[in-house]
Each structure stands twice: as structure tokens, then as C-alpha cells.
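Sanity check. The docking grid for nickel (II) ion depends on where the pocket ends up, so I'm generating a full predicted complex first rather than guessing from homology. Inputs follow.
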Amino acid sequence: MAILEILTYPNKFLSQPTKPVTDIDEEIRNLIEDMAATMYEEPGIGLAAIQVGYDKSLLVYDVSPRDEERSLQVLINPRIVSSEGTTISEDEGCLSVPDFKADVKRAASILVEALGREGKPLRIEAEGLLAIVLQHEIDHLNGILFIDRISSLKRQMYKRRVKKNLKK
Ligand code: NI
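Predicted complex below; grid placement will be based on this.
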């Protein structure tokens, strides 16, 4: 297992749509292990393959409370097939957008279809934190960051800050 480097904004790699996983081979299995190790190391509650440099439709997450046992979940080629209502995801953050948080408008509940770690088809009805994490991670697989979903004023603030830091 390896801890992978997480790409951060404004890395252009993050803004491309990913390709479906066609074969759950050894490379994908190793990638899943490494992504899980990286997510727990950070720590984060979700991580998409694109964030560690693989343009594959694959994500891992674990929304179990900190004081409870880990429960790693893996979704391959996930897609949101329906969504309902709206909610404000408060202070949403992202490992690829360091030191920034913002409120993001999200669907309140979603239905996701995907393949599991072994390639079995799954359907997940999600609401609350899980719905937000899944929308955030599936956005990554479509080349979208949460800062693409906030007001342009807030986004400009963050972009200016990043530019300033890059100059240092
Ligand atoms: Ni993220």
C-alpha cells in the first residue's frame, strides 16, 4: 500500500471527465488499496481516483463516525440516476482545494447506481452526509470541483488567494 500524492487546484488534470473502468484488474485493485490508505491518512471521508492522478471513474468513501470502526466503501463507474429536493451542504471542503470551505447547494437525496469493489451492481439511496459526499465525489469524476458550484464572487476570492500563494 502506498500513500498517493493528491493533486490540488489549479491542476488542470482535475477538471477533465474520467473514463469508465472496464476491467477490475490488479492495477485497479491496487489503486483502490492506495486510495483508501491515502484517504485515511489525510484524513478525508471521500476520495476520487482523479485526485490522485488516475482518470478513472472510481471513488472510495467512509462516512462512519471517527470513533467507530472503519467501513470502506468503493464505487466503480457511479452515476446519479435521480435526485430530489435541495439542501445546503455547510462548510464543504475538499482535499484538492486546501484551506478553503464554502456552503454548497446540493440535492437532498439521490439514487446512485454503480459497481461495487468486486464488480457487482449496486443501488444506493442516500440522504444527509452520504448524499453530499457522493455528489461531491461523483462531481470529481465529471471534472467538477465544489468551487465550481459556489458563487462566482466567492470563487474569485479563492482563486486570487491561490494565485498569490503560487507567486510566493
Ligand atoms: Ni473533493
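Relevant for the grid: Strands lie at 46-48, 58-61, 73-94, 97-115, 121-127.
Also worth noting: The chain has one domain: 12-167.
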